Amino acid sequence: MMEDLIIAPDQHIEVQPEATTSRQNDEAIDPSSLLLHQAAKKRFYTQHTQHLPSRSLLLFLNNGKTSKAQLVKTYKSLPRTKKNNSQVHSEDHVDSIVSHIKLQEDLMQDDPMSEMRRIEALKGIPECLTVKRSVKDKLNNSINQDSKKKVLSQWKRFRYTTSIFFIKMFITLKDFLSSIELWYSAIKSIEGNFGSGVATYFKFLRWLFLLNCMNCLLSILFIILPQSLVKAYSYDTEFNFGDIFIGKGFLENTILYYGFYSNVSAEYIVGYKYDIPSAYFLTMTCCYLLSFILLSIKVARSYKKCYIETSGGIRNTYATKIFCSWDHNISSSKAASLRSASIYRELKELLAETKSSSNSLFTLKKCSKLFIDFLSVCLVILAITATGMLLWNLLELHKPSREADPSSYLTIPLIVTIIMTVFPLFLSRLAKYENYRSQRNALYVTMIRIYSMAVIVIATLLIYWLSYSTFDCWQTELAQEIYRLIIFDFLIFTIGSFLVEAVHYYIHSSVQKNISAPSFDIALNTLNLIYNQILFWVVFYFSPPLSLIIVVKLFLTFHIKKYGLMRYCEPPSIPWRAAQTQTLFLALSFLGMTGTLTVLGYIFTSVQSNECGPFKNYTYTWEAIVEYVFNIKRDSELWKIITKIARPGVGAAIIVALSMIVYYLRAKAEASKKMVRILREMLVLQTRDKDFLMHEFSKVADENWLQRRTAFNESRISGYDIELS
C-alpha cells in the first residue's frame, strides 16, 4: 500500500560533483572509460542507497508481507488524541515518561550538560506542551531531591571554585591582552586602506618580532649577562665606527661572537657556581625548541583552517566570487574601487579559463608552451647555480686574514644582497612569459624560486665555513659573515627600497603622471623576512647578542615599511588570499627552521669545535654536552650506548622508521578523506530522500487517497490478469 513512497531500485539521485581548482584535461575522454566510470558510480549508489529511509521502508513491507487490509487497519488503529485534555494527559502517562527518562543516568545529573540533554530529550517527545511541562517539573523535583541527599564535599567544592576562578581569570587576561596587542591600530589602518593581503606581511613581521624578543630575553638573562660579569670585551683593540658594518676589529673580541665565551664556572654568589657551558647549551636548546614548537603549532593551525576545514572544495565558483570575495576591512574609496576592478578581472579570468579548458590546445601551441616552460626552468636553475658558484669563488678570493683590507670584507655581502634584491624582479618578469593560467600558481612558483635562491646562498656559506675554514675558530668567522649579510640587507633592501619608492612616487605625482604609483610587493618583502629569519636561526648559536640586533632591525623595518606604504604606495591590483598566503609563508619558515636544526645537529656530532668557545678542549660539541650538562663520564656504560646511538647507521634507521610512519599516516589520511567524501554524499542522498518521502506523505493526508490507491491497485491487478489470459 505504501510502495509508491519508495524510490525505485533503478532510480538514482544525482549528486553534483565537487568543484576542483586543478587544471582540466584538454584531451577528449575515452568512451569506454566513461562507461566504466558510470557503471562504477551506479554500483556505488546502489550500495549506499540501500540504507536510506525509503529503502528500509520497502524492505519492511516486502519482508512483512503486509496486506492492504492489515496496513489500513494498522493505520486506522493508531491512538487518536482526544479533545479532553484531562483524559489524554493523565498522571499515569506523565509518570511513565518520567520513569523512562530516569533510567538514563546521563540525563539525571545536576549539571548544565545534563540539563541541556534533558531539554533536547523533551523536545523530541511527541507530546503537547502541557505534558512536556509536567514531565519537566517532575524531573526537576526529582533531581533537586537527589542533590539535597548528595552534599558536595569540601574538596569538590574547592575544586569547582578554583576551576571557575581560573577560567574567569584566563578569559579576563585574554581580553586584556587583545586590547593591548602590539601595533594593533597600525595594522588595522593598513587593512582598511590596502586590504588584508598587505596586512598579512605586517602580521607576519609582528609575529617574528615577538618570537625573536623571546629568544633575545632568554639569551640576555642566561648567557650574555653571566658572561659579561666575567668578561665582556677585550682591551687590546680600540673601537672604530667602521667595525659596525664589517663586524670585525673591536667587535671581534667581545661577547658578540662565539669564540669569546669561556668554559669556566663563575661563582657570583658564595657557595653557588654558575656553569657557563651548561647554561649556553641549555638556553640555546630552549630557544630553538620553543621556536620550533611555536612555529609548528602556528603552521598546523593555519593549515587546518585553510586547507583541512575547506577540503570539501569550492562549489558554485561564480556565486562565491560575486557574493563572498569582497574584503570588508577596506575603508578607503580608492582601495574599494581597486578591489572592485580586481573582482571584475577575476571573473573574466574564470570565464577565460572555462572557455580555454573546454577547447584543446593545438599541437603547435602545446609544443611552444612546453618549450617556454623548459627554457624558463633552465634559466632559473642556471641563475641559482651561477649565484652559488659566484659566492663560492668570492669566498675563496677574499679569504679572511689578519692583514686584509677592511673594505674587502664588504664585497661578499654587497654582491649577495644585490643579487637577492634583483633576482626576484627577474623571476617576476619571467613568470609573465610563462603564461600561467592562474595568477596564484605564478605567484607560488615565483616564491618557491626566490626561496630556493635564499637556501642556496645560506647553504654555500655553511658548506664553505664548515669545510674550508682558514682560521681555527671558524664559528666566529661564520658569525661575522652572516652579521654583515644582515646589516647590508637592512641598508640596501629596507632603506634602499624606501628611497626607490619615494623617488617613484615623486616622478608619478610631479613629473610624469602617466606612470603608475609604486605598489607594495607582498611576496618579495615577505620572502626577505624569511631570508633574514633563516640567517638569524643559523647564526644565533654562534652569536647570542645578534638576537638583540635582529629585534631592533625588525622594529625599524616595521615602521619604515609602514610609513613608505601609507605615504607612497597604492593598493595592490592583484588580490591576495590572506589566510592561504600566510600558510605558505609559515610553511617556508618551518622548512628553514627544520634545515637549521639539521645543520646544528650535524655541527654538534660531526664538526670539530675544540679551539674556541664554551666547549673548547673537546673534539666534538656533543662530548662536552654529555659530560658537562648530563655529568656522564667517558668510561661509563651509558657513554658507550650514546656513542653507538650517535653513529650514522642509527640515524639512517630512525629516518627510515619516520618515513614509514609518515607513509602510514598519509595512507590513513587518504582513507579518511575517501570516507568523508562518501559520508558527505550520503548526507546529500538522505536529504533528497527525505524530501521525496515528505512529498509522498503529503498525499496521505488527502482523505480520498485510500480510494484512489485501491482503485489503482485493482486496475493494475486486472491488467495483469488480462496479460496472463
Q: Could you explain how this protein is built, in words?
A:
The protein is mostly helical and 725 residues long. Helices cover 72% and strands 1% of the residues. It has helices spanning 31-48, 53-64, 68-76, 85-88, 91-102, 112-123, 129-149, 154-179, 184-194, 196-230, 243-246, 276-308, 317-324, 333-358, 363-397, 411-434, 439-467, 474-511, 522-540, 546-568, 578-606, 621-629, 637-645, 648-700, 705-724; strands at residues 265-269, 272-275. The chain has a two-stranded antiparallel sheet. α10 (196-230) packs antiparallel against α12. The longest helix has 53 residues, at 648-700. It is globular and about 110 Å long.
Write the layout of secondary structure elements.
Layout: H1 31-48, H2 53-64, H3 68-76, H4 85-88, H5 91-102, H6 112-123, H7 129-149, H8 154-179, H9 184-194, H10 196-230, H11 243-246, E1 265-269, E2 272-275, H12 276-308, H13 317-324, H14 333-358, H15 363-397, H16 411-434, H17 439-467, H18 474-511, H19 522-540, H20 546-568, H21 578-606, H22 621-629, H23 637-645, H24 648-700, H25 705-724
Antiparallel strand pairs: 1-2
